[in-house]
Recover the amino acids of this structure.
């Protein structure tokens, strides 16, 4: 029945002459739609041919408009494509192959883009790719959207045009040529053949030009040794999957040693197959990732490491018997392994590097591959020192820099800064107004690698292409474009690169090379030049220590410090210390007690520590926080690069101390003194739990001998519970009726503790995929970190975890158990270490689901535990009831909040947000979703292509990021999938299996090679 009534929402609407009503109407619609008259007039309604769909459109549109006007909500204008790009389909991700090359990290990767925005890094899994993106590579996509980037070039601190820059530089080059003045091009290792060709063109046009390569974290001694033996300035390559015995002397080859990327090959040999696995012996000062994963770890000072390396040389090459029993055993195992043995070293000493090359050649090691040498380190410490001396002497007319920040990274940076004033023209290509570019005459705004074309020779067999995945966000120019302009070459860099690359494509077309991201070929053998190995070994044998041995290193999260303004990396907990937002000096407990240094916990759970003053030569570094590190060799100290930056960073990211100040002569091994300073430091440490305590089914491990000789029930026992007063396997008892999950998909995640190295790439990948917020140091201290995925690190209280089990089992009675467990909080001097990634276990019988009063958390039929954020009222009952402690509560609104001034507080930073995952608000619980948006995307893609989902096509962010293969995700209802086979493994177990939660995440028992 039609009605002539008019309905109103406000008394103001009854006033026909109201300006307010008229204004609201005009703001909402260009031309008012007379919906009320139309629907309220019987004649017009009955005579119309309006369909039901149109009727609902009218009603819905008018209601939505009125609601919007009443709420005074913001109007967001969307501009549609005039011509939609062919490659962009709204809502569908595109992937582009490219190569990251920032002078420190190099990797073949894929970039996920949404509507033209790069939002995530993935591994390039094509055969032959030099991949294995680490945490920094995964985080690099956020650095693209850094709001503090240089947005245009500057001359003398004022905005300028590129024409002005080119005019000024060319004039200086011509002046230098006319007067015979020296021109120096100072770059990091770009490993770019086309750029080298362009620099050669610059040298040809201006003959007084010299190219100096400077790496902030130098491998100069290793390069010198390799060049002496093989005639090429490069680094030896290694394939640890081919090694049965690995002896590492001070080389963190699971970290950043020689550019990293060795973890995938290493992990292959660490998973027991046919009763065999590789043996890993680590000799080192600092507790490193490699040391934490070793079967045998021998803490030594730098001098002792040099002596040990000399002993290994004499044993392997000359057949001598080392006096040190542990070194003698290692040498015997090396010789027994024959060509399946390999030795590596990270000692910053030419003699040490020469001796290692000699040992590997003597063993004829198949894991040692000098022919496919690594080309991503080319720095020359002597040339850099000479440059500073020449600048001080006024011998440099024009200095052109690219990708370097010597005013921050040089130990003698004060000399460099002072000498810079005597250079007539200084130019710095940089993404930031950093310590160097802020002092140069010209600060040339450089693009991010995701905005750039380029080529990279990662190894002698790998030629990679870098392609842009987004148009430049700012008025930036590549260094190569400037070189072309300065040599009067009118072609674009893209055209130059395309024609230059022809000789390196090995038969591939340009389009195919760009599509794949790289070209793989065979590396020609290198000829060995004889070297004086005996003298090198003799020099090592005479090494002595004085004071403390300071070992400078790069942290997994921060690297050389280029991405110090990246909040994902600042908040990333260090795998060993579990500290974020800081660097610190590490020392052994014995040295700390002897010198008055302390760490202690405070009431809110935070970790505090003493400050130290460190002196190397005439340089003093003050107020350095101290961490007492189990496993640190007595008489040694560790300190990480990459912190202490001040310029080009938001205030929140200006943390830590500058270790480069102690990096004299670009040598990472220094003799230092250390004294206690006043005050106490507050750390942001996410894990204070140091032992397994009584929870034996969290980390399960065994030895290779037991694994090979005993039944699985012995080393992977099923927990027993009481049922009708009879011991019964926990896996056979249920409090609930089980749901039939044999139909459709049933997703499981498998984590192999033998393959997990603790590298943390999965943590950053999860950050990127799931819009995980950054909360800052003070919130981390309150245990409010928001990481959906954490990597727990466990230390043994005894020398081994097996020793811990004996101690626990021998405890009797309540008081004895309390004393025993309290004592086990103190780790061994040289503990065994275990890493365990933990996320929501997606329990089939989830304790969180039974206590949620509003059913915000519930179970899907495919195995995932879902969260309905809009339904959550923040009671946190689920977090209290979760035995795995994997739920995260939004204490604050982290998005668009000036109190949390990280990437989510500015429009540019929010460009990295994944539109497939909503950004959670304050007061809700969040946790791992097993990347349900990724599984749904795979199903929709297969459906659209009219095919079944492929084997192992399903992925999560963490499993896709895991280059070591520790994480495998898939459908266990697909009998051909890898994860379905892993479910049946004898090594498989679930966390806290005795409580009957039936998780969909499984782990595999860690096996240590005790042979």
């Amino acid at each position: 029945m039609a009605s002539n009534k008019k309905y109103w929402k406000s008394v103001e609407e009854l006033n026909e002459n109201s300006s307010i009503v008229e204004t609201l109407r005009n703001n909402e619609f260009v031309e008012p739609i007379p919906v009320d008259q139309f629907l309220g007039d019987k004649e017009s309604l009955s005579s119309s041919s309006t369909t039901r769909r149109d009727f609902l459109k009218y009603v819905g549109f008018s209601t939505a408009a009125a609601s919007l006007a009443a709420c005074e909500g913001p109007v967001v204008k969307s501009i549609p494509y005039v011509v939609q790009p062919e490659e962009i389909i709204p809502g569908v991700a595109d992937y582009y192959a490219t190569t990251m090359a920032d002078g420190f990290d190099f990797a073949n990767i894929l970039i996920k883009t949404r509507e033209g925005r790069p939002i995530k890094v993935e591994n390039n899994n094509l055969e032959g790719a030099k991949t294995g993106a680490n945490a920094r590579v995964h985080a690099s996509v956020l650095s693209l959207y850094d709001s503090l980037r240089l947005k245009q070039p500057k001359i003398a601190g004022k905005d300028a045009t590129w024409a002005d820059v080119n005019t000024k530089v060319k004039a200086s080059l011509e002046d230098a040529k006319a007067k015979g003045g020296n021109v120096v091009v100072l770059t990091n290792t770009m490993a770019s053949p086309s750029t080298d060709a362009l620099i050669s063109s610059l040298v040809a046009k201006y003959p007084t030009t010299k190219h100096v390569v400077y790496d902030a974290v130098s491998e100069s001694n290793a390069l010198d040794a390799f060049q002496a033996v093989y005639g090429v300035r490069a680094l030896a390559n290694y394939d640890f999957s081919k090694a049965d015995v690995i002896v590492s002397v001070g080389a963190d080859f699971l970290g950043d040693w020689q550019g990293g990327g060795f973890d995938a090959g290493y992990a292959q040999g660490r998973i027991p197959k046919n009763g065999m696995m590789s043996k890993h012996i680590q000799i080192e000062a600092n507790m490193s990732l490699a040391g934490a994963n070793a079967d045998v770890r021998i803490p030594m000072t730098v001098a002792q490491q040099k002596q040990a390396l000399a002993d290994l040389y004499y044993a392997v090459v000359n057949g001598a018997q080392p006096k040190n029993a542990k070194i003698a055993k290692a040498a015997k195992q090396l010789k027994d392994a024959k060509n399946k043995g390999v030795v590596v070293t990270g000692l910053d000493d030419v003699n040490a590097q020469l001796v290692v090359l000699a040992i590997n050649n003597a063993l004829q090691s198949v894991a040692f591959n000098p022919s496919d040498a690594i080309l991503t380190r080319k720095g020359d410490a002597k040339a850099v020192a000479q440059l500073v001396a020449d600048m001080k002497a006024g011998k440099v007319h024009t200095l052109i820099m690219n990708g370097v920040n010597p005013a921050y990274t040089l130990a003698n940076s004060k000399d460099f800064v002072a000498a810079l004033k005597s250079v007539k023209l200084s130019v710095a290509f940089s993404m930031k107004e950093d310590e160097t570019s802020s002092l140069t005459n010209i600060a040339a705004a450089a693009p991010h690698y995701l905005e750039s074309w380029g080529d990279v020779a990662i190894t002698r067999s790998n030629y990679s292409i870098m392609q842009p995945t987004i148009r430049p966000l700012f008025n930036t120019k590549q260094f190569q474009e400037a070189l072309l302009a300065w040599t009067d070459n009118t072609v674009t860099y893209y055209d130059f690169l395309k024609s230059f690359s022809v000789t390196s494509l090995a038969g591939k077309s340009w389009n195919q090379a760009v599509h794949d991201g790289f070209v793989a070929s065979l590396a020609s053998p290198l000829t060995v030049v004889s070297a004086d190995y005996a003298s090198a070994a003799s020099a090592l044998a005479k090494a002595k220590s004085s004071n403390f041995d300071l070992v400078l290193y790069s942290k997994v999260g921060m690297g050389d410090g280029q991405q110090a303004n990246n909040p994902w990396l600042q908040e990333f907990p260090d795998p060993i210390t579990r500290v974020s937002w800081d660097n610190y000096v590490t020392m052994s407990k014995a040295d700390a007690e002897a010198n008055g240094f302390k760490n202690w916990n405070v009431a809110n759970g935070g970790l505090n520590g003493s400050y130290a003053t460190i002196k190397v030569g005439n340089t003093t570094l003050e107020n350095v926080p101290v961490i007492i590190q189990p496993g640190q060799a007595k008489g040694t100290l560790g300190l990480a690069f990459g912190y202490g930056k001040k310029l080009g960073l938001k205030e929140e990211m200006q943390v830590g101390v500058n270790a480069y100040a102690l990096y004299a002569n670009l040598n990472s091994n220094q003799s230092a003194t250390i004294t206690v300073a006043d005050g106490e430091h507050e750390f942001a440490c996410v894990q204070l739990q140091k032992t397994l305590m009584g929870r034996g089914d969290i980390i399960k491990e065994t030895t290779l001998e037991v694994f090979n000789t005993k039944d699985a029930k012995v080393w992977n026992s099923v927990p027993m519970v009481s049922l009708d007063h009879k011991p019964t396997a926990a896996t056979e008892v249920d409090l609930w009726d089980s749901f039939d999950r044999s139909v459709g998909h049933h997703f499981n995640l498998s984590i192999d503790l033998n393959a997990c190295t603790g590298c943390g790439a999965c943590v950053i990948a999860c950050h990127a995929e799931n819009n995980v917020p950054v909360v800052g140091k003070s919130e981390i201290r309150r245990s409010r970190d928001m990481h959906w995925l954490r990597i727990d690190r466990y230390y043994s209280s005894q020398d081994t975890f097996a020793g811990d089990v004996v101690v626990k089992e021998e405890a009797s009675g309540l008081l004895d158990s309390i004393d025993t467990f309290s004592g086990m909080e103190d780790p061994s001097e040289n503990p065994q270490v275990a890493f365990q990634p933990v996320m929501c276990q997606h329990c089939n019988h989830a304790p969180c689901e039974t206590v949620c009063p509003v059913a915000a958390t519930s179970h899907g039929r495919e195995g995932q535990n879902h969260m309905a954020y809009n339904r959550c009222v923040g009671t946190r009952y689920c977090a209290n009831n979760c035995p795995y402690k994997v739920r995260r509560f939004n204490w604050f609104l982290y998005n668009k909040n000036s109190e949390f001034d990280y990437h989510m507080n500015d429009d540019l930073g929010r460009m990295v947000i994944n539109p497939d995952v909503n950004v959670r608000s304050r007061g809700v619980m969040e946790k791992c979703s097993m990347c349900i948006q990724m599984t749904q995307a795979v199903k929709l893609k297969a459906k659209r292509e009219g095919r079944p989902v492929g084997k192992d096509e399903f992925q999560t962010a963490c499993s896709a990021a895991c280059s070591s293969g520790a994480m495998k995700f898939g459908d266990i209802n697909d009998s051909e999938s890898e994860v379905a086979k892993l479910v049946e493994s004898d090594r498989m177990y679930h966390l806290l299996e005795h409580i009957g939660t039936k998780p969909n995440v499984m782990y595999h028992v860690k096996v240590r090679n005790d042979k």
In short: The two ends are 90 Å apart (CA to CA).
